[in-house]
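Progress report, Aim 2. The chain analyzed during this reporting quarter is listed below.
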Amino acid sequence: METPAHIVVHYHELWLKLGNRHFFLHQLRRAMQRALEGIRVARITQPGDRYLIELEDTAETELAIRRLQQVFGISHIAVARRVDWSHRKSEDILPRLFETAWEEIRTEKFATFAVRAKRSDKRFPHTGMFLEREIGGMLFDKLEAEGRHPKVDLDHPDLTCRIEVTRGPVLIYARRIAGPGGLPTSTAGRLTCLLSGGFDSAVAAYKMMKRGAHMSFVHFWGGGAEPGENSMYVARRLVEKLTPWQSTAHLYLVPFEPLQRQIVARADESLRTLLYRRLMLRIAERIALREKSKGLVTGDSLGQVASQTLQNLQSVGSIARLPIYRPLAGDDKLEIQGLAAKIGTYEISSERFHDCCAIFQPKSPALFATSEELDQAEGQYDAQSLVEEGLRGVSLERFRYRQGSVERSMAKRRPTVDHLSKG
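Predicted structure tokens for the chain:
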């Protein structure tokens, strides 16, 4: 019978949570269970300060690892070999540990190595330092006998063989795979992201999701009905790419071009983009209240475009009741695009699409508009009426991550203005 695969999941930041640690670990476990849907998991246990996932079929190990790499809260992952022991019968444990460690490293290529051991179960008869010295020496001798001449490097080895003595089995592994870090999903509350089709807002959403926020999305669209003409297609693909990180997501689609035309007909040209953004914030805030969100998220990067000067950000945001989070405020475009490439949104945002914010773009946009100037400009039209008109056109799409794929469904009924008014 084939030996089941054992995946060791380590977390780091969660240990800082002290009295709330149980809550965060429970959410991490739930997130892992959702990520592994469709994979035959025998059991998930928690021996010490790590989780141990036992799979029924070793052929599903790589798939499980790929899924777990999209679970926030995980520091790193390893596929471990298991050595069972009993404190009553531990005389033969060293040879067994050596044999298992040898099987783990013998096919690996390295010039330097080290053995690191951690003993969580104090009933184990040997200390971590003793295991490092004894098992390390046995491995060195075996490698020499095989004609390989490695060096021991305790600071920066090419390969580290890790031995973890838990209150269950002893776990031995040499390959460690980085996880995404952060905090488990849905541990910080809800936020609503104003999602464009570009690089910035999707990366901003990811960064807040990594801190435990569960994200809903609002996309303002205009243009034609086909891909390349309509940004909705890009927005959907971005949400599909982001949903696995948090399991579910709502995408609200707001037709925006008719509202823009009314602003263009009545407002000063230099203020158009700022007035667009104010209207977006007003509409998104109403949706956020329906979602019970604690704030709004935008992809603003300080000074990147004219609307993102400090003065303009303050003037646009002055009408919001909910907090506005700008996780990219200090990032430049290369940093943002680098993270977009890492999380898989870069190629999607690189596609051609119709950006509603570019419609009727002023030739000389205002760099330092005041709140009073924007208030006065909004007095030329009925801003609240435009909010209600935008909300009447909203459609809602739901996304759910199941068994490794994302399902999209349309809401049975269009959200009404009355529903969007409830917070």
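The two ends are 56 Å apart (CA to CA). The chain has a mean pLDDT of 91. These observations will guide the mutagenesis work planned for the next reporting period.
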